Amino acid sequence: MSVHPIAAADALAQLERFSAIIDARTESEWALDHLPGALNWPSLHDEERVRVGTLYKQVSPFEAQKIGAALVARNIAAHIEREVLDKPKHWQPLIYCWRGGKRSNSLALVLGQIGFRVHVIEGGYKAFRRAMLDDLPTRVQALRFRVVCGPTGSGKTRLLQALSQLGAQVLDLEALACHRSSVLGAVPGQAQPSQKRFDTLVWDALRRLDPQRTVWVEAESQKVGNVRVPDSLMSAMRASPCLKLELPEDERVALLLEDYPHLTQDVDHFCNRLDALVALPGHATVKRWKALAQAGDFATVVRELLHAHYDPGYEASTRRNFRQFDAAATAKARDHTPGSFLALAQGLASDDADRRSPTPAGSGVPGDQVQG
Questions:
Q1: The pLDDT value given to residue 363
Q2: 251 Cβ partners below 8 Å, 6+ apart?
Q3: How far apart are CA 79 and CA 309, in angstroms?
C-alpha cells in the first residue's frame, strides 16, 4: 500500500506536484468550495449521506456503517472504472474530504493498494482552508498593487481587460465574484460564489502572480455584491498607488448601456432593481425612472442615476479609503470603445516592468492620455 498523509500547509505549497486533486466529499460540499482544480469523486453522494446520517441517528451507528460501507464501495468502484483504468503507474493523486476521515481514506486505501502513490491531506478541507487563510496575507504582502480608480462607467474593467491583453498582471475581483460591484451589478444567470469559494479563488489568483511585477486591480469597496474582499488584500489596495480614470459623461452612459444589456432587455428586472435605490432619490424620482425605462429611454435613466446615485460623494469616498488617491496620475480615454482602452493601456504597460511613472501625456495615441 502506498498512502501518505500530508500536512495541509505542505499540500498548499505543492499543489502542482500532484497528478490530480480529488475531493471525496458530496456534490454540494464540493460546490460550496474546493481546492483549486479539484475533481469531485464523492465517496457518498448527497442523498446517500443524508440516508446514512439518518440511520446513524435513528437506528444505530453500526447499521449506518454497514450501509455506508456498501455505498462507498460501490461509488469507489464506479470512480475507478470511469477515471482510473487508463492511468499510468506514476499517477499520483492528492485526496481529501471534510476532515481527513473515512471518505478520503477509503478511496486512498483502494488506490494505494492498486499501486498508486497517494497523498491524503491531514485534517481534510477544513485544515486546508485554515492554512490557506493563514497564507493569504503573506501572498498579499509580497505583491505590489496599482489601483485603478474612477466613477461608475469610466471603464475601469475595460482598462483592466486591455492591460491583461497586453500581458500585464491583473487581479479582476469582480470576475472572481461574478458581480459588477453595484446595486445593478448582479450578472444574470450567474450566482455569486460562496464566501469560502471566493476566498479560495482570490488566494489561487494571488499565488499565480509575479511579485516582481505590478498587479493592476480595480478600486473596490469591502464587499463585491454578497462576498467580502479579504481584509489583508483590502488594506494593501487602500495603501497602494492609484490611477484616476476619466471618461466623458456621454461615453460613460454609452459604456454602461453596453455593459448592462440585460437591464434594457428585461425592463421589469431593471425596474425592480431601481426600487433598491429609493432611499436616496426618493419614491417620486424612482417612479419617473421606471416610466422612462418602460418607454425605452434608458439613456436618460442611466445619466440621472450617475448624477443622483453614483457620482455624489464618489471622489470624497475614494480619497477617504485610498490613501494615495490625491497623488494619482490621471488617465483619460477618448471614448468607450475597447480600442481606446487598449491604446491607453499601451501607455501604462511599461510601468509593469520598470516601476516608473506612467507614460507622460501626449506620448501615446492622441486622445488617450496619462497625466502625472
A1: 35
A2: 333, 335, 336
A3: 53
3-state DSSP assignment of residue 158 = helix
What fold characterizes domain 3-133? Oxidized Rhodanese; domain 1 (3.40.250)
CA quadruple 90, 96, 102, 106: dihedral, nearest 10 = -20
Q: Name the catalytic one among 97, 178, 242, 271.
A: 97
Nearest partner of 207 among 160, 138, 125, judged by Cα: 138
- Could you tell me the pTM of the whole model? 0.91
Task: Count Cα atoms within 13 angstroms, Cβ side, for 79.
Answer: 21
Do residues 53 and 103 lie in contact, with contact meaning Cβ atoms separated by under 8 Å? no
Answer for the pair 101, 124: CB distance below 8 angstroms, yes or no.
yes
CATH node for 142-371: 3.40.50
Q: Cβ neighbours of residue 155 under 8 Å, at least 6 residues apart?
A: 245, 247, 252, 255, 333, 336, 341
Q: How far apart are CA 230 and CA 199, in angstroms?
A: 7
Residue showing cell 499517477: 91
Query: Catalytic annotation on 97?
Result: yes
Taking 70 as the threshold, does the pLDDT of residue 91 lie above it?
A: yes
Average pLDDT, integer, range 32-44: 98
* Contacts of 248-253 spanning 24+ positions with Cβ under 8 A: 248/335, 249/303, 249/306, 251/333, 251/335, 251/336, 252/151, 252/152, 252/153, 252/154, 252/155, 252/306, 252/336, 253/153, 253/299, 253/302, 253/303, 253/306
Return d(Cα 50, Cα 341) in angstroms, integer: 52
Q: Which residue has the higher pLDDT, 354 or 94?
A: 94
What cell does 29 get? Answer: 460540499
Over the stretch 146-163, which tens digit does the pLDDT of each residue have? Answer: 999 999 999 999 999 999
What sign for the dihedral angle of Cα 295, 301, 303, 304? positive
Distance CA 234, CA 295 (A): 41
β-strand 144-149 against 169-171: which pairing, if any?
unpaired
Q: Whole-angstrom distance between the N-terminal and C-terminal Cα of the chain? A: 64
Query: Across the strands, what pairs with 243?
Result: 148, 329
Q: Where are the domains of the chain?
A: 3-133, 142-371
